[in-house]
Amino acid sequence: MDVRGFFLAVRNRWWVVILATVIGAAAAVGITSREAKQYSSSVTFFVATPSAEPGQAYQANLYAQALVNSYVKLLSSDELARRVIAQAGLHATPQAVAGKISGTAGLNTVLLTATATDSTPAGAVRLSSAVATAFGPMVSSLNNNYNTTATKAPVVLSVVSGPISPVKVAPRRMLNYLLGILAGLVIGLALAVLRELLDTSVRSDEQVAAAGTGVLASISRIRRYWPLPLIGVGRDRSILAEEMRRLRTSLQYMQMDRPVKVIAVVSSEAAEGRSTVAINLALAFAEAGRQTLLIDADLRRPQIAEYLGIEGAVGLSDVLARQVDLDTALQTWGEQKLHVLASGSLPPHPSELLGSRQMADLVARLRSEFDTIIIDTPPLRPVTDGMIAALLSDGAIVVVCNGRTSRAQLGRALQALRAVDVPVLGAVRNMVPLRRPGRSAHGAYVATRPSDAAADEHGPRTTRGSHDTAGAAISLANAATGPLPEITLDTGREGNADANPNGSPPHEPADTQPGGRVVRTALGRSRWPG
After folding, report:
1. By the 8 A CB rule, do 179 and 28 touch?
2. How many alpha carbons lie under 13 Å from residue 212 in its C-beta half-sphere?
3. Mind listing the pLDDT tens digit for each residue in 488-524?
4. Cα 242 from Cα 420, distance rounded (Å)
5. Please, what are the domains in the chain?
6. pTM score, whole prediction
């Protein structure tokens, strides 16, 4: 990882760094508050070896310097501790007292400093005073006292400083706090870098390009999951609408010699926002005045009808089975007059139905009637339906959930499409974190204001034929004057009323209540008796 990668990792995992730093600081505060107070008092000795002959003074000084390092060890000895206990009248073991006494010696000096530590200031002074009194005689006894006939000069210890006033040495609050913050910061940075190195999800356009395709557009993450984020429903000037228009423009001018007319929207796994992207892309094409058809080719876990609040009992599977004609199954939605072909009843063998001759003929017929056809397919990895449906298109766009889809999953999806010669138009990064308005390239220009939400009045949903398959009218409230009303569809539809949470991509919430299925959409709330 280079320097740029390190800073990107810290930016992406900033909360890990902050959390670790806060934990480190809190741990330092907790440890410091529980640490016992300690006070120290010290006394300084001067070590001398008197010499009777002037010519031996230098040798005597060197001899004293050599002895000082040995005397440092003697300060922590049990012998001195016993003498200190007797001198100060303490009730403690020699080992406990020896642990409270330490010594230091300056380099190339004959000065020896003894430090006594205790939990109270008075105890520290009492210990240092006892050391000052007992250490000299102990050293003299060890040297067999002064002897004028000895070849080596005796050692004399003289107190030159102390015992000094006690000083508080523990806890060292500021040092502990700084060490805790620094340790937490280092651990947080290490965790952020490690998490970034171990993260195999797609988080940048470069990672998508490394998998073998380009990024057509990036779709920002919508913090508010209700209502369903659909463009054209009070969102004409939103960032989401501009991003979908950018995707539409990229697809329109991708192949000038052979325009892309039938587009399959695929994803490697479920819950990556595929259906939401398909709906909004279809709305973007319809907004441009093109005759647009949205087909729900997910015959296992269909979502389009549920999200748009339209009737899904009759649709693609019924047309392919020749149970209803195409004009009856087609429905229109919204003021953009988007044409929708729902999935219809769930067939026992979806793969065979999508790969049938009837499906190919149906797509060929629809090509002549519509300018743009968007096909919402099942995920590629669990079933083969997605690849079969994509074979009928002019190209596929792969929806990648930012931070969720792994690079390996994206690579397998691209490989599966190319294995059956499906042209890959590019990828769409979904759920990309949204920058604050004013910091992004277009946020300040397209941010939606309350006054931008025009008062829309949608009429009843219609079909191209003479039959009303839903048997209901959908009325919409003025979006600028109040909340959207609840819409009740009396369809008489029987079947499974449970929403599939695993198949619902981001931005596509469903709400199930006892007594019927309530579906939250951008148009309101629709209830099917279940």
Report:
1. yes
2. 15
3. 333 333 333 343 434 444 444 333 333 333 333 333 3
4. 33
5. 3-35+172-198 (no CATH), 38-170 (3.30.70.1130), 205-221+237-435+449-456 (3.40.50.300)
6. 0.60
